[in-house]
Amino acid sequence: MDYDTYGSTAVELAIDLANADRDAGPDWAAAFLRAHDEWFEPGSDVDLSPAEADQAATTAGLVRAVAVATTQAEVIERLNALLALARPQPYATDHDGELHLHYARRAAPALEQLTTTVAMGLAQVVVQHGWQRLGVCSAEGCDDVYVDTSRNASRRYCSNTCASRSTVAAYRARRKV
Ligand SMILES: [Zn+2]
Ligand SMILES: [Zn+2]
User: Fold this and answer.
1) Going from the N-terminus, what domains does the chain have, and what CATH number goes with each?
2) Ligand 1 center to residue 67 CA distance, Å?
3) Are 142 and 163 in contact (CB under 8 A)?
4) Which pTM value belongs to this model?
5) Which residues pair with 104 in a beta bridge?
6) At what angle do helices 110-129 and 50-68 cross, to 10 degrees?
7) Which ligand ends up closest to the CA of 136?
8) What is the Cβ-side half-sphere exposure of residue 10, based on CA atoms within 13 angstroms?
9) Which ligand is nearest to the CA of 140?
10) DSSP classification of residue 8
11) Nearest-CA neighbor of 85 among 120, 132, 53, 136?
């Protein structure tokens, strides 16, 4: 499996968006865009209006809905709802030295770039590598989603933090008996 393509790293943006803390206040979306500004055309205005922030939340919710789906029919329905929000106008670029595709038109508003990149990146991984590559963290008290890029599809946790926390908890539980 080759994950060294824009499409598969764009899925990381989708996962980050799905896991973003939307209770952090009305500025969560602008804060998210600022923290991921390498994804947006230089000069993009990332100060989203409240309505745009709501749309970003909808996109985040749909990414999560795809990741937690348990049947292919659910995946298709939810992925298509997400793709319906995208406005792809792909173009090839080698701005970072590697030839790759960008999905959104250059001058698109930041929200359009976000929605389109996230939808296309997620769709590409689901179609090429299977929706089973998406999952929910197995750690207690965490329901973040992840994309499994491991060779043998063995991932169960959203992060190394959750993985090691769970290992410690399992060790302690075993010692108690
Ligand atoms: Zn690029
Ligand atoms: Zn986790």
Assistant:
1) 6-131 (1.10.3300.10)
2) 24
3) no
4) 0.89
5) 88
6) 10
7) 2
8) 24
9) 2
10) H
11) 120
Nearest ligand atom owner, CA of 161: 2
- Distance from the alpha carbon of residue 99 to the mean position of ligand 1, in angstroms: 8
CA 101–ligand 1 middle distance (angstroms): 7
Average model confidence (pLDDT) for the chain?
90
What ligand has the least distance to the C-alpha of 155?
2
- Centre of ligand 1 from the C-alpha of residue 89, in Å: 14
Amino acid at 21: D
Report which bound ligand comes closest to the CA of 117.
Answer: 1
Q: Is the dihedral of CA 62, 43, 4, 137 positive or negative?
A: negative
CA dihedral 38, 30, 102, 88 (to 10 degrees): 180
% of the chain surpassing 90 pLDDT: 70
Residues 6+ apart with CB under 8 A from 114: 13, 17, 33, 39, 40, 56, 59
> pLDDT digit string (tens) for 95-133?
889 888 899 998 999 999 999 999 999 999 999 999 999
Cross-strand bridge partners of residue 100:
93
